[in-house]
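hi! just following up on the protien thing from before. the input was this:
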Amino acid sequence: MSVAATADPEVAGSLHARILSDISEKIMSGAWAPGHRVPFEHELTEQYNCSRMTVNKALSQLAKAGLIERRRRSGSFVRRPRSQAAVLEIHDIRVEVEALGLAYRYERVARHRRRSNGADLSLLELGQAGPVLTLECRHFAGERPFAHEQRLINLAAVPEAAGEEFLDIAPGPWLIGRVPWSEAEHRIRAVAADSRTAQALDIELGAPCLVVERRTWGAERPVTHVRFTYAAESHTLVARFRPSQG
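and the predicted 3d structure came back as:
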């Protein structure tokens, strides 16, 4: 097919759809990671044997959808997906990732059962020592790490957690499905990535991160304390509220 053939609106339309589909698939699958340079317009024109107008239209639509960033004189680059999570909700990270159109994957890094120490008592607001379970996990969006999870579970409140390996299911949805929570507290802060966080999230040492710490209670007993760490550039927290009626 010659370039001139793309003057046919039907042909141009099918090529436009094909370019959109091909590039979207590469981004969504993780084959093109955030920061990857999309081929230049003239390269895509040659690859698809079409007009530059057709390529420009497809790239403009991808930029409008937030999948790529177009930089004058530099070309187009894959954007890092930016998720939004509600501050006043307990949400499943899988839902957050899939809302971005990316494949979700979970990985348990470490699991230890032990007796609580002083730091645990403070995190869980426990009055006396008892058995706890500590977990370290990673959540992925496509091929890239999305969130680093460090969790502490009060086994006195959830004894059945002692027998769960958490290899196939993340502790968050597991707990929500078994322990009705009556109260929750969120604390949010910004930190610079230490070596452990940088390795877990595959980011530079000292890169800005967003930390969300949450404690939950069930029947007035502490259930869990969890710390989620995100690369700051990929995560936004949102709160929706109404005026006080007081």
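Residues 1-7 have pLDDT under 50 and may be disordered.
The chain has seven helices and eleven strands.
cheers
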